[in-house]
Design brief:
single chain, about 70 residues, mainly alpha
Length: about 70
């Protein structure tokens, strides 16, 4: 796994947060599913403990965002 892949996750997660702020639940959920799958795939390839720790942080954040979507929808 390359560090660049980790760096690329940050803007994607920020986009999800921005979509939630706009209450664009459907688009946020689609992107969230995509990013969650990407994180899971990266975890399968991880070789460094530092990368695993960073990816675990993203996992926790993404799970929190799932709850936000579930609780925020009308």
């Amino acid at each position: 796994m390359h560090s660049q892949q980790l760096v690329n996750l940050k803007p994607k997660v920020q986009t999800i947060i921005d979509l939630l702020a706009k209450k664009d639940w459907d688009t946020a959920q689609l992107l969230l599913l995509e990013v969650s799958e990407e994180v899971e795939n990266l975890i399968d390839e991880v070789v460094s403990d530092d990368h695993l720790i960073e990816l675990s942080k993203y996992q926790v954040l993404l799970k929190h965002l799932v709850l936000k979507i579930q609780n925020g929808r009308p």
